[in-house]
Structure formats: structure tokens, C-alpha cells
């Protein structure tokens, strides 16, 4: 992963325009929602485990709830991670390339992220519709399975939008000086 230098943030303040800042805020709120869901799932699991051990009374369907909710909660993190440049990158090959080439490669990578996000959103939505039509429900609680699948779609749509935005953003900045190289020039 390409680590920022000391004092260099992954995303500079005011780096994005109004559209990018709005998208970043939406991604941040989706990520916070995903985090809250995971915290609630942990609390539910603890209550279920303690209830099972002390009173032989676990939370009914705790594993079903955990599986359904963790899938869509995890989908909420991807877009924010991409907007903050938190993706895992192998910079071994690009370490000695010019900032312009690195930004073009980053734009291409972000475009691929957008395509993957759009494909995941599309296929997940179609899968949820198919499951809804078949009437599948969870074994213990009888919760319709399509609901948890459909709840993953907004996270994947945000990922596609974040990928598109970052592709355009990196493409626009391909000739701008890199903060990494500017800070190196100031130290020299």
C-alpha cells in the first residue's frame, strides 16, 4: 500500500469540489451506518452468548441476523475507503514513475472499481429480485432473504459512484504536482 509521508494526509483538505465533497459525505455516513450495524451485531452476539450460557436462552435467530446484517453493513464501507484512498495498492512497480503516470494508473484503477461496483450493484439487485420471487425466507425467523441482499445495493452503487468520481478526479490531476513530490522538493 502506498503510505503517505509523515504530515501528508491521504486526502488533502478541500481537495474535492462540491460534488466530490457531497459524495464523500454520503460515503462517510454510509460507513458510519455500517459501523453502527456492526456494533449492534456484536452487542446482540454477546447477549446471545451470555443468554445461552447462563439461562439457556439465546437470541432466537442470532446467526441468521448476523449473516444478513453483516453482508450489507460491510458493503457500506467500500466507497468511503476508495474515496479516502485506503485501497490496497502495490506500488512496487510505480514507486519510480512520474506522478502523472501514477495518477493515470490511479484513474484507470478507479474506473475498474466503478465497473466492479456497478456490476455488483446490478447483479445483487437482480439476485434479490429472483430470491423475492421465489419467496425464500430464513429458517428460524422467516425473514425474507431478498431484503438483506437488496440492502447491499446502495453500498455497491456508492462504490461505483466513488470509483467514477475518483477516476475523473485523478485524470484531472494527472499534470498537477504530487504532494509527495512537492514535499520532497521542499526538503531538498
Question: Could you characterize what this model shows?
Answer:
- It is built from seven helices and no strands.
- The protein is mainly alpha-helical.
- The protein has one domain.
- It has helices spanning 18-55, 62-75, 78-83, 99-134, 145-150, 153-172, 179-187.
- 69% of the residues lie in helices and 0% in strands.
- The two termini are 25 Å apart.
- Helix 1 packs antiparallel against helix 6, helix 2 (62-75) runs parallel beside helix 6 (153-172) and helix 4 (99-134) packs antiparallel against helix 6.
Brief write-up:
By secondary structure, the protein is mostly helical.
Give the topology.
Blueprint: H1 18-55, H2 62-75, H3 78-83, H4 99-134, H5 145-150, H6 153-172, H7 179-187
Helix pairs in contact: 1-2, 1-6, 2-6, 4-6
Keywords:
disordered C terminus, 188 residues, elongated, mainly alpha
Q: How many separate helices?
A: 7
Globular, elongated, flat, extended or rod-shaped: what is the shape? elongated
* Assembly context of the chains: single chain
Helix content bin = 55-70%
- Structural class from helices and strands? mainly alpha
Distance between the termini: 25 Å
Strand % is under 5%
Count of β-strands: 0
Give the mean pLDDT.
87
Largest sheet: none
Radius of gyration: 21 Å
